[in-house]
Amino acid sequence: SANPRKRDQAMYKPSYDGANKKVLWQELWRHEFEAALANDPVVIIPIGSIEQHGPHCPMDVDISAPFYMAVEVAKRIEDFPVLIAPPVWSGFTHYNMGFPGTISLRLETFQNLLIDVFRSIHANGFERIVSVNGHGGNHAPCRSVSWAIAEEDIFTLSFSWWDMVEKELREWSATNEGVGHAGEWETSVQLHLREYLIDQTRLASDDAGTQPFKGELAFAEFAERRRDTAKDTGIMGDATVANAEKGARIFALACDRLEKLLREYRDLPVRHYREFGSHCT
Length: 281
Description:
The chain is of the alpha/beta class. Helix content is 36%, strand content 8%. The chain has eight helices and six strands, in the order ααβαβαβαβααββα. β3 (129-133), α5 (139-149) and β4 (156-160) form a beta-alpha-beta unit. It is globular and about 65 Å long.
């Protein structure tokens, strides 16, 4: 009898071979997952948070940036399937609870959520998984999860979107600012993506007060408290120098590098934890 997967491939046009293709996991039909699985797909999981971002930005800054980047790149790539998993919007961000609007998960809750999402996607047959994070407090927890689940033969790439453009963030900044928090770069990206959600009458600058030691002792630091900022704004950086043109430039570069990474990742063989025999020897 005919293989059901082969039959479905013959009956249905794959969802990834045209400009109007679907890229969002939650919008696909079952036969479209079958078609994708037959063509060495890559899955991107955008990860972020819902938290205060100063007086001028919305709460979803940290999930919107990686989500829009992922969708842009998935739509560009037509020669193999790239699917965008439902974004993980909840993050580890207790230090932003000093202002209203923040929703934070306990560290173990956040990491267990990611583990279950990775396991489920892998159990569906998807073996190339990329998590793109947009919240600083998630960076280390995400990397830890990626390393931990490798023991289960689930190999993922895990990074934050600013890792792709770290050098340019500094070089193109008016204030030598990295990604910051609701400062120059996050505000610029939002002005590019969703200008209507930025209250430009409330733009401000503020200094991070979470680094108590200087010089050779700068390696020692406390956990953040967003109200440590000097002017009590909840901003780390200078939003007054933000503009949409800067946001478009850094967004485009991040998308270019994400596309390059996905293409090289897909060309690699799928990793297996015990491919050289017992991992204990």
